[in-house]
Amino acid sequence: MIRIGILGLGGVGGYFGGLLAKAYYNSTEVEVVFIARGATKEAIAENGLKIINDDSEVIAYPKLVSNNPDEIGVLDYLICATKTYDIEESLLSLQKCITPKTVILPLYNGVDAPERIQKIFPENDILQGCVYIVSMIASPGTIRRLGFYEKLFFGSKTTSIDKLEELQNILQKAKIESYLVDNIEETVWEKFIFISALASATSYLNQNIGEIQKKKKSMKVYVELLHEIESVAKAKGLQLPDDIVGKTIIKLEKSPKEATSSMHRDLLANRNTEATSLTQFVVNEGLKYGVTTPLYEKIANALL
């Protein structure tokens, strides 16, 4: 039996975890465990996890929903999708469930997660991954997805191909549009360029995607951020697609107008934000590689 834990049941973990739980509900080969506490745990234990799409609803039941490591047991795969500021604390609480054989797939907004996780679990295979999806928590145990765009990318330079293909097979059987890619670091950074500039701009300007596109000044801020982060990525030696700025603007144009970044939503709700991983991180990388990022710096100072 392959045991998969889903840590963090927000827009990303809840959506992809829900698809996995639904697909393997009666399986004798794969068992899906949701790691949750409080209102989320209670809601899922009582009514399952609900995913609301534009024209349909899905209800998924995991084999187990718990935050007790003794109950959860040892995991073969752990998919992590909490907020970046919770990485260390949430993983340390699951030490009993993670053996050196556990493969960890981080699906966070930032790009610094694999390095941070490797420090806690130096013997483990830590993959790199990212997703493209617009989804959020509608209420505890309920995920709302906007639009039809969903893609999951993952890979690793060091993990055995057997393990990677096993995970890809599990994801595809659950009808998740997933891609096992060789140049995963570039793929993750391509996504990070999109999400970092978007999170920084929406939060700083207090505007959603449609409002940013409508206002010339706002678009100027967004594009300037893209140029700064592109310079940092290039200084790191990453082989990015040609005209990454133009391609990222097209992604923005394809996004739902009423949507915004999760960081902006957290800011509006007076919650802790991921500004350290999404905005300040770019400033720090710039300093490391001798690239100036004045707008990122200004926004980081405002948000932190």
The ordered string of helix (H) and strand (E) elements is: EHEHEEEHEHEHEEEHEHHHHHHH
Termini separation: 45 Å
Strand order of the largest sheet: 5-2-1-6-7-8
| CATH fold node name of the largest domain | Rossmann fold
Catalytic activity: (R)-pantoate + NADP(+) = 2-dehydropantoate + NADPH + H(+)
GO molecular function: 2-dehydropantoate 2-reductase activity
GO biological process, one term: pantothenate biosynthetic process
EC number: 1.1.1.169
Summarize the structure.
Helix 7 (184-205) crosses helix 12 and helix 9 (216-235) crosses helix 10 (244-254). The longest helix has 22 residues, at 184-205.
Model description:
The chain has about 300 residues and is an alpha/beta fold. It has 2 domains: about 1-180, NAD(P)-binding Rossmann-like Domain (Rossmann fold); about 185-304, N-(1-d-carboxylethyl)-l-norvaline Dehydrogenase, domain 2 (Orthogonal Bundle). The protein has 13 helices and 11 strands. It has helices spanning about 10-25, 40-45, 70, 85-90, 115-120, 160-175, 185-205, 210-215, 215-235, 245-255, 260-270, 275-290, 295-304, and strands spanning about 1-5, 30-35, 50, 55-60, 65, 75-80, 105, 125, 130-140, 140-155, 180. The strands form 2 sheets. Strands 5-2-1-6-7-8 form a 6-stranded parallel beta sheet. Strand 7 (about 105), helix 5 (about 115-120) and strand 8 (about 125) form a beta-alpha-beta unit. The chain is globular and about 55 Å long.
